Amino acid sequence: MRKQIFITFAFCVFSFGLAQTAPAALKPTNDNKILIDNLIKIADFDKYVHEYCRTRIYQTAARNNWNETRTQQAIANIDKVIKFEEIKNSIYNTFAQFSNDDLSNINKLFKKLKTNKYNETNFFLMNDILQSNLELNIEELIVSVR
After folding, report:
1. What is the spatial distance between Cα 43 and Cα 110, in angstroms, rounded to a whole number?
2. How far apart, in whole angstroms, are the C-alpha atoms of residue 12 and residue 117?
């Protein structure tokens, strides 16, 4: 009996020791942070988020037969519910892996795209983590007006 308890205990300790923790979030260097902040500004990320939220609100409103008051209430709550700092931290985490040269090139590309007279659409580079974070915030926004 003691042997079984000891083996079980040893197995649990050994298994716990092998358990992996989630990787730490990447932090950009100071130079990268400046370039990432510049990208957020050039891309007008806050405007992108607002436009995306409005689009998703109108889609949800149409699907769920919301009246205009409820739709406008959701739109008015964008700044109250959307956690821009959380999303911004996800942006830092995502772009922290890029070199200064890559970030400089991305900034140049966005500047060029923004000065294109035919470009009236606001956009931003997204990956699955950023998109998921944004979608979670939007779901919280939609739930807040139900």
Report:
1. 7
2. 64
CA 33 → CA 19, 28, 40, 135, distances in Å?
Answer: 32, 6, 10, 24
> Is residue 48 within 8 Å of 124, Cβ to Cβ?
yes
As a whole number of angstroms, the distance between CA 134 and CA 31 comes to 26
pLDDT tens digit at each of 146 positions of the chain: 555 554 555 444 455 444 455 456 678 999 999 999 999 999 899 999 999 999 999 999 999 999 999 999 999 999 888 888 888 999 999 999 999 999 999 999 999 888 876 667 778 888 998 999 899 989 998 888 87
Residue 25 is classified by DSSP as P
- 91 with 49: CB under 8 angstroms? no
- 74 and 145 in contact (C-beta within 8 Å)? yes
Which residue in 81, 92, 84 sits closest to 30, CA to CA?
A: 92
